[in-house]
Amino acid sequence: MATRLLTTFQTRVKQANQLLFCDRTAKQLNSPMAYLQPQPIAGYIGFLGHQNLGDEILFDAFKKLFPALQLLAYDGAVDRVHNPPFSYYPAELALYRRVVKPGPFYDLVFLGGGTLINRRHYLSRLGHAVQQYRCAVFGTGVADPMFWHEQDRSEDFLQQIKQWIPVLKDVAVVKVRGPHSAQILASYGLPRPEFIGDPALSMCRPRITPHRRTGTIGLNVGSHGTLWGDQERVYQIVTALVQQLIDRGWRVELLPFDPGDLKISRFIAQQFKPTLVSLWPHFYQAKLTLERIQSYDLVIGQRLHSIVLACGCGVPFVALKYAPKCDDFLSSVDCLEFAAKTDALDLDHLLSLVSQIDRNYDARCQHLTAVGNRYRTLQQQTAQALMEGSL
User: pLDDT tens across 180-219, in order?
Assistant: First the structure.
């Protein structure tokens, strides 16, 4: 009896702590007044709350594209009878869900930006959502089944993609990130998937042209460990590249996109004079980082969204492509030639790409500005049609 009471007490303390002190990232309405009456709410399925700049900017992009909706991290648990809402949402939102909007909580559920399709965790969440709500896939990428089958045996990616198709067929609107994502889904039987580009492009504003050159290159290195080749060799080549760029008169600024990038970025920067190589410390602040990217002459980037944001700002880039998702984006913006695969990095090739951009600088800026504007318009039109119910 005493043990049971102690267990119950500990559970209640844990629940109270969750209600009052949980992380409120993507778990709060836009304003205090919004809690007083039912709001149109969209659930967002994505990778949030990990200080990864790319994923956080994607969430911001959805808020910008769908301003009429209150966007919250999706949690199917709030709709299960035996799993009460305080297991996930903070106190004010749990109370709002029970008292102010006790009916169906979500008016729409998004499978958000990022490479989420063909990942088991997101399949279960989307599968739960389609049983109860109108759902949309908007600019989502597909994890390449063969690449992940070869790299990670913790999941059966070749079979798992087949499980996604019937779920996606129940989704009202399916618009993926790029042509490779669309091709994968079509090859497994999803009819007529279309691509609309990476939603993070809608968070970018192309800089005023002509750009006043600063002689500075933004450099991003880092990954979550699954890549073509070896990450340590990437660091070695990049460090040598920095020295070669300095010798050619460039300044370099290390540009982390994730807490995991910070250690290696700091290590590389410390090997050079701070007047020649610096470190951008405010990567967790999206607005400041976008402005910083606009100031660079070009970006050399490994993480996907370092090159997505450069493209969106009209800044020429060289991609250190480490997984098929990079090709998915690069092909969507016609930039495959300005990339080097991480298992075949060559210092001379990287320097030649930088020189090629430097020689044709204005043309590269104009191309990226045009393609960014095209996708921003397409995403805005698609978002409007989705809200109007015409898709």
Answer: 999 999 999 999 899 999 999 999 999 887 788 999 999 9
Residue 110 Cα distances to 23, 105, 308, 388, angstroms: 21, 14, 21, 16
- Specify the pairing of strand 41-45 against strand 108-111: parallel
Cα–Cα distance for residue pair 371/201, rounded to 1 Å:
10
Instruction: Please tell me the distance from the alpha carbon of residue 220 to that of residue 309, in angstroms, as a whole number.
Output: 12
Which band of pLDDT confidence, cut at 50, 70 and 90, is reported for residue 79?
Answer: very low
Nearest C-alpha neighbor of 323 from the set 174, 152, 153: 152
Reported confidence tier of residue 82, pLDDT bands at 50, 70, 90: very low
CA distances to 90, 136, 137, 264 from 44, rounded to whole Å, are: 16, 10, 10, 32
The domains located in the chain, with CATH, are 8-202+375-388 (3.40.50), 203-373 (3.40.50.2000)
In terms of Cα–Cα distance, which of 204, 223, 145, 126 is closest to 374? 204
Cβ atoms of 272 and 242 within 8 Å: the answer is yes
pLDDT per residue as tens digits for the range 265-314: 999 999 999 999 999 999 999 999 999 999 999 999 999 999 999 999 99
CA distance 359 to 341: 23
Tokens 């990217």, located at residue: 293
Confidence check: pLDDT of 15 > 70: no
DSSP structural state of residue 270: T
